[in-house]
Amino acid sequence: MLCNKRLLLILLCLPGPVLADLDGERTALAKLMHELDGMEPLIAEAQSQAEQAGSLRFQYDWLFLDIERIKLGIQEHLTAPRQARSFPPLKGDYWR
User: Fold this and answer.
1) Which residues are within 8 A (CB) of 54 and not within 5 positions of it... i.e. 6 or more apart?
2) pLDDT tens per residue across span 35-68
3) How far is Cα 38 from Cα 22, in angstroms, rounded to an integer?
4) How far apart are CA 70 and CA 49, in angstroms?
5) pLDDT, mean of residues 7-36
6) So what's the pLDDT on residue 14?
7) Given a cut of 70, is residue 22 above it in pLDDT?
8) I need a labelling partner for 29 at 20 to 30 A (CA). Which of 1, 10, 76, 80 fits?
9) Which residues, 6 or more positions from 1, have their beta carbon under 8 angstroms from its beta carbon?
């Protein structure tokens, strides 16, 4: 019981913005995940309308893979934010 009171006292002494920032980050990252999900149909539409005969073509499959890597990184951060991780580099160059 005494331990619970001490923990409550410590939590009450923490500044509010510190606790709010953690929730704010999670909310912002969840919004970002939603935006990334919304981009996929737009990219698929652009891909379906792309000129196939050109010598210089945009690599939509690479873009989809990079978006999936970004989403995976966000999801892993949301589920285990205190563990250091490494991810493969993004392609970033979508022209061929």
Assistant:
1) none
2) 999 999 999 999 999 888 777 888 999 999 999 9
3) 25
4) 25
5) 74
6) 64
7) no
8) 10
9) none
Side chain identity, residue 61: D
Provide the pLDDT for residue 37: 95
Stated length of the chain: 96
Cβ contact 63:36 at 8 Å:
no
Percent of residues in the chain assigned helix, strand, coil, to nearest 5? 70, 0, 30
Q: What pLDDT score does 5 carry? A: 60
Burial 14-53 (b: 16+ CB within 10 A, else e): eeeeeeeeeeeeeeebeeeeeeeeeeeeeeeeeeeeeeee
Measured in whole angstroms, how far is the alpha carbon of residue 68 from the centre of its chain?
A: 9
